[in-house]
Protein backbone atom coordinates (compact mmCIF):
# COMPACT_ATOMS: atom_id res chain seq x y z
CA UNK A 1 0.00 0.00 0.00
CA UNK A 2 2.72 2.43 1.01
CA UNK A 3 4.57 1.67 -2.17
CA UNK A 4 1.48 2.37 -4.30
CA UNK A 5 1.01 5.71 -2.54
CA UNK A 6 4.61 6.65 -3.25
CA UNK A 7 4.13 5.73 -6.87
CA UNK A 8 1.09 8.00 -7.11
CA UNK A 9 3.03 10.85 -5.53
CA UNK A 10 5.85 10.36 -7.96
CA UNK A 11 3.40 10.36 -10.85
CA UNK A 12 1.78 13.58 -9.61
CA UNK A 13 5.18 15.24 -9.26
CA UNK A 14 6.05 14.23 -12.80
CA UNK A 15 2.81 15.73 -14.05
CA UNK A 16 3.54 19.00 -12.24
CA UNK A 17 7.06 19.20 -13.61
CA UNK A 18 5.97 18.49 -17.20
CA UNK A 19 3.11 21.00 -17.06
CA UNK A 20 5.48 23.66 -15.68
CA UNK A 21 7.83 22.94 -18.52
CA UNK A 22 5.07 23.32 -21.13
CA UNK A 23 4.11 26.63 -19.53
CA UNK A 24 7.70 27.89 -19.76
CA UNK A 25 7.73 27.10 -23.46
CA UNK A 26 4.56 29.09 -24.03
CA UNK A 27 5.97 32.12 -22.26
CA UNK A 28 9.15 31.93 -24.25
CA UNK A 29 7.46 33.06 -27.47
CA UNK A 30 9.77 33.79 -30.38
CA UNK A 31 10.07 37.37 -31.63
CA UNK A 32 7.96 38.00 -34.73
CA UNK A 33 10.08 37.47 -37.83
CA UNK A 34 8.75 40.65 -39.44
CA UNK A 35 7.61 43.76 -37.58
CA UNK A 36 5.81 46.77 -39.02
CA UNK A 37 6.14 49.87 -36.85
CA UNK A 38 5.63 53.65 -36.80
CA UNK A 39 2.84 53.60 -39.37
CA UNK A 40 1.33 56.97 -40.17
CA UNK A 41 -0.96 58.41 -42.80
CA UNK A 42 -1.70 61.98 -43.88
CA UNK A 43 -5.15 63.53 -43.57
CA UNK A 44 -6.92 63.91 -46.91
CA UNK A 45 -9.26 66.50 -48.33
CA UNK A 46 -12.98 65.84 -48.37
CA UNK A 47 -13.01 64.89 -52.04
CA UNK A 48 -9.58 63.29 -52.29
CA UNK A 49 -9.85 59.74 -53.52
CA UNK A 50 -6.39 58.58 -52.51
CA UNK A 51 -4.23 58.62 -49.43
CA UNK A 52 -0.68 57.82 -48.53
CA UNK A 53 0.93 55.82 -45.73
CA UNK A 54 4.45 55.49 -44.39
CA UNK A 55 5.89 52.88 -42.04
CA UNK A 56 8.97 50.88 -41.09
CA UNK A 57 9.50 47.20 -41.88
CA UNK A 58 12.15 45.18 -40.04
CA UNK A 59 13.16 41.61 -40.82
CA UNK A 60 14.26 39.91 -37.57
CA UNK A 61 14.52 36.43 -39.11
CA UNK A 62 17.57 34.57 -40.37
CA UNK A 63 16.40 34.66 -43.98
CA UNK A 64 15.12 37.24 -46.42
CA UNK A 65 11.40 37.78 -46.83
CA UNK A 66 9.39 39.53 -49.53
CA UNK A 67 6.49 41.92 -49.25
CA UNK A 68 3.90 40.68 -51.73
CA UNK A 69 1.00 43.03 -51.15
CA UNK A 70 -0.80 45.52 -48.92
CA UNK A 71 -4.46 45.82 -48.02
CA UNK A 72 -6.55 48.31 -46.03
CA UNK A 73 -10.23 48.23 -45.13
CA UNK A 74 -10.57 51.94 -45.97
CA UNK A 75 -9.28 51.66 -49.54
CA UNK A 76 -10.46 49.64 -52.50
CA UNK A 77 -6.84 49.16 -53.58
CA UNK A 78 -3.58 49.59 -51.72
CA UNK A 79 -0.13 49.17 -53.20
CA UNK A 80 3.51 49.89 -52.64
CA UNK A 81 4.95 52.77 -54.66
CA UNK A 82 8.41 54.16 -55.13
CA UNK A 83 9.03 57.82 -55.85
CA UNK A 84 10.93 58.37 -59.09
CA UNK A 85 12.80 61.44 -60.25
CA UNK A 86 13.62 62.29 -63.84
CA UNK A 87 15.24 65.70 -63.78
CA UNK A 88 12.63 68.02 -62.30
CA UNK A 89 9.82 65.59 -62.85
CA UNK A 90 8.74 63.52 -59.85
CA UNK A 91 6.62 60.47 -60.43
CA UNK A 92 5.63 57.21 -58.82
CA UNK A 93 5.93 53.61 -59.84
CA UNK A 94 4.23 50.53 -58.52
CA UNK A 95 6.57 48.07 -56.79
CA UNK A 96 5.13 44.56 -56.99
CA UNK A 97 7.55 42.85 -54.62
CA UNK A 98 9.95 44.23 -52.05
CA UNK A 99 12.56 41.93 -50.54
CA UNK A 100 13.88 42.67 -47.06
CA UNK A 101 17.03 40.70 -46.30
CA UNK A 102 17.77 39.23 -42.86
CA UNK A 103 18.34 41.99 -40.31
CA UNK A 104 17.34 44.77 -42.71
CA UNK A 105 15.04 47.68 -41.88
CA UNK A 106 13.27 49.46 -44.73
CA UNK A 107 11.57 52.77 -43.99
CA UNK A 108 8.78 54.09 -46.16
CA UNK A 109 9.19 57.86 -45.95
CA UNK A 110 8.01 60.96 -47.87
CA UNK A 111 10.02 61.15 -51.09
CA UNK A 112 10.74 57.42 -51.07
CA UNK A 113 8.72 54.25 -50.79
CA UNK A 114 5.11 54.74 -49.70
CA UNK A 115 1.85 52.87 -49.60
CA UNK A 116 -0.79 54.33 -51.87
CA UNK A 117 -4.36 53.97 -50.67
CA UNK A 118 -6.65 54.24 -53.68
CA UNK A 119 -10.40 54.75 -53.88
CA UNK A 120 -10.87 55.63 -50.23
CA UNK A 121 -14.20 54.82 -48.59
CA UNK A 122 -14.06 58.29 -46.98
CA UNK A 123 -11.63 61.06 -46.05
CA UNK A 124 -8.75 60.28 -43.70
CA UNK A 125 -9.07 62.63 -40.72
CA UNK A 126 -6.75 63.65 -37.93
CA UNK A 127 -7.37 61.40 -34.94
CA UNK A 128 -8.36 58.43 -37.12
CA UNK A 129 -6.45 55.18 -37.11
CA UNK A 130 -6.01 53.52 -40.48
CA UNK A 131 -5.77 49.73 -40.53
CA UNK A 132 -3.18 48.22 -42.82
CA UNK A 133 -2.13 44.63 -43.51
CA UNK A 134 1.13 43.78 -45.21
CA UNK A 135 1.45 40.28 -46.61
CA UNK A 136 4.88 38.67 -46.71
CA UNK A 137 5.95 35.54 -48.53
CA UNK A 138 7.19 33.80 -45.36
CA UNK A 139 5.79 35.77 -42.40
CA UNK A 140 2.27 35.91 -43.88
CA UNK A 141 -0.03 38.81 -43.02
CA UNK A 142 1.25 41.45 -40.57
CA UNK A 143 -1.35 44.00 -39.46
CA UNK A 144 -0.95 47.36 -37.78
CA UNK A 145 -2.79 50.66 -37.37
CA UNK A 146 -1.47 53.93 -38.72
CA UNK A 147 -1.94 57.19 -36.86
CA UNK A 148 -3.06 60.19 -38.90
CA UNK A 149 -0.65 63.08 -38.86
CA UNK A 150 0.82 65.75 -41.19
CA UNK A 151 4.35 64.54 -40.48
CA UNK A 152 6.10 61.47 -39.11
CA UNK A 153 5.27 60.89 -35.44
CA UNK A 154 8.33 61.22 -33.22
CA UNK A 155 8.92 58.61 -30.57
CU1 LIG B 1 2.19 56.70 -54.89
Explain how this protein is built.
The chain is of the alpha+beta class and 155 residues long. The protein has 2 domains: 1-30; 34-148, Immunoglobulin-like (Sandwich), CATH 2.60.40. The chain is 17% helix and 47% strand. The protein contains 1 helix and 10 strands. Strands 1, 2, 3, 4, 5, 6, 7, 8, 9 and 10 form a 10-stranded mixed sheet that branches. The termini are far apart. Mean pLDDT is 88; it is low at 19-25. It binds copper (II) ion.
How many distinct domains?
2
* Assigned CATH architecture of the largest domain: Sandwich
CATH superfamily membership of the largest domain: PCu(A)C copper chaperone
Q: If helices are DSSP runs of H or I spanning 4 or more residues, what is the number of helices?
A: 1
What kind of sheet is the major sheet?
10 strands, mixed
> Helix/strand-derived class?
alpha+beta
Terminal CA distance reads 67 Å
Helix percent band = 10-25%
Question: What is the gyration radius calculated from CA atoms?
Answer: 24 Å
Strand content: over 45%
Ranges where pLDDT stays below 50 over 5 or more residues in a row are 19-25
Mean pLDDT level = 88
The name CATH uses for the topology of the largest domain is Immunoglobulin-like
CATH level-1 class of the largest domain: Mainly Beta
Number of strands: 10
Ligands in the model, by name, code or SMILES, are: copper (II) ion
Order of H and E elements: HEEEEEEEEEE
- Inertia-based shape: elongated
Amino acid sequence: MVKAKQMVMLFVMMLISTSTHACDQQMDEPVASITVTNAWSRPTGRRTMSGVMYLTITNHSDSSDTLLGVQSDIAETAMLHATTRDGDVTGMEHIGRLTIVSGQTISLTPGGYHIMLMTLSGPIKKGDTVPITLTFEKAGPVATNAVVSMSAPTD
